[in-house]
Write a structure and sequence with these properties.
Helices cover 52% and strands 11% of the residues.
Length: 587
C-alpha cells in the first residue's frame, strides 16, 4: 500500500500548492526518519519559504491546512513538525496491506512491457570460476531477479569470449598435449579437467625454447585468423574446448544459483558479418586513425585518454570490436541493456559507450554496473597460474561451516520438529550458500569487500542466517497454529484494528514498503537495497515476535496476528528469493 499512499500524498501536496498558487515542480516527498510516526513526509516548505517570504514552519502549516485527510483512503492525518509535513497512515492503509500481503507473490509489480537484457558473469571459459569474480554472478543474478519482480521482461545473458587469443591458446594446448603430461584434476568436473591444458600451454609459452614457442605462436595465430575468416573447421575446434569448459562452469554457477537464458558467443558477430560491417563504419569516423600497425579511435576529445584499438594490421578484430557489434545487437532486440562488469573494465565501458554514441546510438538505455572484486583475508587471487581459490571451494566451506552451526544449535531449538540428517544437510546448503550470496550482494557494488566467515554466518547479526531464521520462525508459528487447529483466516474476515500494538503496526508498515523497495532497487539497479530492507524487516518481525504472542491471544487478536505472520512470511520469503537466497522453513 506504500506505493498507493505515496501517490495520494503526492496528489495531496500538489493540490494544496495549487490552492496556494505555489509551484508544484518539486513536492519534496521523502521517507521520514524511523523515530517519526509517519509513512511519508514532505520538505517542500524549505524550497518555498523564500518565495513566500515566510519561515518554513509557517509555510508547512499553511500547506497542511489545505489538505483534508478525509479526501484520501490511505492518509489518516497530516501533521507538521517544524518545516516538515508528516503523513500518517489510515486504518485502511494497514487493513489493505494485511490483505495484499496474503498473496504468495506479494511485492511483484505490474508488467511494464519493457524488455531488458541483463548480461553478467561472462567470465572467459578458461577454467573454474574463481572467488574474486564471484561478485559478478551474484550481483547480476540478483539484479535480474529484481528487474523481473519489478515487472520487466528479463533475459539473462552470458557473453562468451570464444574468439580471443586466450581461446586460441587453449585450443592449441588441448590439441598439443597428452593427458599423461598433466597433473590430476582438482575436481571431477569438465572445467577442472580442461584447465590443465590451458595452464600447461601457458607454461610452455613462457618456458619452452624460442623456436618451439615461435612454432606454437604461428599455430595460435592461424586459429585466430581462421575464426576471423569464418573457417568452419576452426570454429568447431574452438567450440569443442569452449563448450566443454562452459558446461562445467555452468554446474558451478548453478550452485549459487545463477542460471542463464542465453549464451551469446562473440563469434556470432564475426560469422554473421556484423563485425566487418562495424569496422567499415568505425574507419569512417573522424576519430579513426591508423597508428602503430592498427586501426584505432582517438577519444581524447571525449574525455578518454586511451585509444580504442579495433582492428589489427593482420585484419583480425579485437574483443572490443566484437563487443560493440554485440551491443548494437542488444539495442536492436531489447528496450534496455544492463551489463555487470568488474572494476577493471571501467575504461572499456567508457570506450564502448562513447563509441556507440559516435556511431549514432542513443546510449541512455544502456546501464553498466561496475563492482569491486571479492577478496578473502589471505589477499587477492589469480587463476592463470592455478594458484587461486575457486568458487567451488568457497561454497563447499560455507556448507561445512553452516552444517556445524546447525548441528550445534539442534539442542536449543524451540520447535519440536525432529530434524534428520537429510534435513540438516538441506539446511546447511540453504544457510551456507545463502550466507555467501547475501554477504556479497548486501554491499554496494562499487565498494571493495573482504569475505569473512564469522560475519557471514553469524546467526545473531545482520547476516543471511539472521534473516532466514525470521522466515523459519514464521513457518514455525503457522505450523504450531495448524497443529492446534487454527488455520490462517481469510483476511476479509480479520479485524486489522486488532493489530493495535506499536510492534504489530511497525511490522505492517514495514511490510507495506516492500513493493516500493523493489521499485527503487529496479530503477537504480541496486539489489543491495533489498538486502538492507530484509535486515530492517527482521528487526521489525523480531520486535513483534517478542511483544505479541500469537497462539495465546484471544480469538480475534490471534486470527489477526496469524494473518500478519502469513503476510510477514510471504514478504521476507519473496525478498530473500529476489536476492537468490533460500528461505528455509525450518532451521
Amino acid at each position: 500500500m506504500f506505493l498507493a499512499a505515496r501517490r495520494e500524498v503526492e496528489a495531496a501536496v500538489e493540490h494544496a500548492l495549487d490552492a496556494l498558487d505555489l509551484p508544484t515542480d518539486d513536492l519534496g516527498i521523502e521517507e521520514p526518519p524511523e523515530d517519526v510516526d509517519a509513512v511519508l513526509a514532505s520538505s517542500v516548505a524549505f524550497r518555498l519559504a523564500g518565495e513566500v517570504g515566510a519561515a518554513p514552519p509557517e509555510v508547512a502549516a499553511d500547506i497542511a491546512a489545505e489538505i483534508d485527510p478525509a479526501d484520501y483512503e490511505y492518509v489518516g492525518d497530516v501533521t507538521t513538525q517544524g518545516p516538515y509535513l508528516n503523513f500518517l497512515p489510515s486504518d485502511a492503509y494497514f487493513a489493505a496491506t494485511l490483505e495484499a500481503a496474503q498473496d504468495d507473490e506479494y511485492g511483484r509489480l505490474d508488467p511494464k512491457d519493457t524488455s531488458v537484457a541483463v548480461e553478467h558473469t561472462s567470465a572467459n571459459p578458461t577454467g573454474p570460476v574463481h572467488v574474486g569474480r564471484a561478485r559478478n554472478p551474484i550481483i547480476g543474478d540478483a539484479l535480474a531477479n529484481v528487474l523481473d519482480f519489478a515487472g520487466y521482461d528479463v533475459d539473462r545473458h552470458y557473453y562468451v569470449n570464444d574468439a580471443g587469443r586466450q581461446m586460441a591458446v587453449f585450443t592449441w594446448a588441448y590439441e598439443k598435449f597428452d593427458e599423461s603430461d598433466l597433473p590430476e584434476p582438482e575436481r571431477d568436473r569438465a572445467e577442472y579437467d580442461m584447465v590443465r591444458y590451458y595452464r600447461k600451454g601457458n607454461t610452455f609459452l613462457d618456458e619452452a625454447p624460442e623456436d618451439e614457442v615461435e612454432a606454437a605462436e604461428a599455430e595460435i595465430q592461424s586459429i585466430m585468423q581462421g575464426l576471423e575468416d569464418g573457417d568452419e573447421e576452426t570454429y568447431e575446434r574452438v567450440s569443442e574446448v569452449v563448450d566443454t569448459v562452459l558446461g562445467g562452469m555452468q554446474e558451478c554457477l548453478a550452485r549459487l544459483p545463477a542460471e542463464f537464458d542465453e549464451f551469446v558467443k562473440e563469434t556470432r558477430f564475426m560469422r554473421d558479418g556484423s563485425t566487418d560491417d562495424l569496422v567499415d563504419r568505425l574507419q569512417e569516423l573522424d576519430e579513426a586513425v591508423y597508428e602503430e600497425d592498427a586501426w584505432q579511435l582517438e577519444l581524447d576529445d571525449h574525455g578518454i585518454d586511451k585509444n580504442l584499438v579495433f582492428l589489427r594490421s593482420d585484419g583480425t578484430s579485437l574483443y572490443a570490436t566484437r563487443d560493440l557489434a554485440h551491443h548494437e545487437w542488444k539495442f536492436e532486440n531489447y528496450d534496455r541493456a544492463v551489463t555487470v562488469l568488474g572494476e577493471d573494465h571501467k575504461l572499456q565501458a567508457q570506450q564502448v559507450r562513447t563509441t556507440l554514441e559516435l556511431l549514432g546510438h542513443d546510449t541512455e538505455p544502456l546501464d553498466q554496473v561496475l563492482y569491486s572484486y571479492v577478496n578473502l583475508p589471505e589477499g587477492k587471487m589469480s587463476t592463470r597460474e592455478g594458484t587461486g581459490i575457486d568458487l567451488d571451494d568457497l561454497l563447499d566451506e560455507a556448507i561445512d561451516r553452516a552444517r556445524e552451526e546447525v548441528e550445534d544449535r539442534l539442542e536449543d531449538r524451540l520447535r519440536n520438529d525432529d530434524l534428520d540428517d537429510e534435513d540438516v544437510e538441506r539446511i546447511a546448503h540453504q544457510v551456507g550458500i545463502g550466507a555467501v550470496r547475501y554477504d556479497i550482494v548486501s554491499k554496494q557494488p562499487a565498494k571493495a569487500i573482504t569475505f569473512e566467515w564469522d560475519r557471514a554466518l553469524d546467526f545473531e547479526a545482520q547476516s543471511a542466517p539472521y534473516v532466514q531464521y525470521v522466515h523459519a520462525r514464521a513457518c514455525g508459528i503457522q505450523e504450531e497454529a495448524r497443529e492446534a487447529g487454527h488455520e490462517v483466516p481469510d483476511p476479509a474476515e480479520v479485524d486489522a484494528d486488532a493489530l493495535d500494538t506499536p510492534e504489530a503496526r511497525h511490522l505492517l508498515a514495514t511490510i507495506a514498503r516492500f513493493p516500493a523497495v523493489i521499485e527503487e532497487a529496479a530503477e537504480d539497479h541496486h539489489p543491495h537495497v533489498v538486502a538492507t530492507y530484509t535486515r530492517e524487516f527482521a528487526e521489525a518481525f523480531n520486535g513483534f515476535y517478542r511483544a505479541c504472542p500469537v497462539l495465546d491471544a484471544d480469538e480475534e487478536v490471534r486470527d489477526a496476528r496469524l494473518a500478519l505472520v502469513a503476510a510477514a512470511r510471504h514478504t521476507v520469503g519473496n525478498a530473500l528469493g529476489v536476492l537468490g537466497v533460500a528461505a528455509p522453513e525450518s532451521m
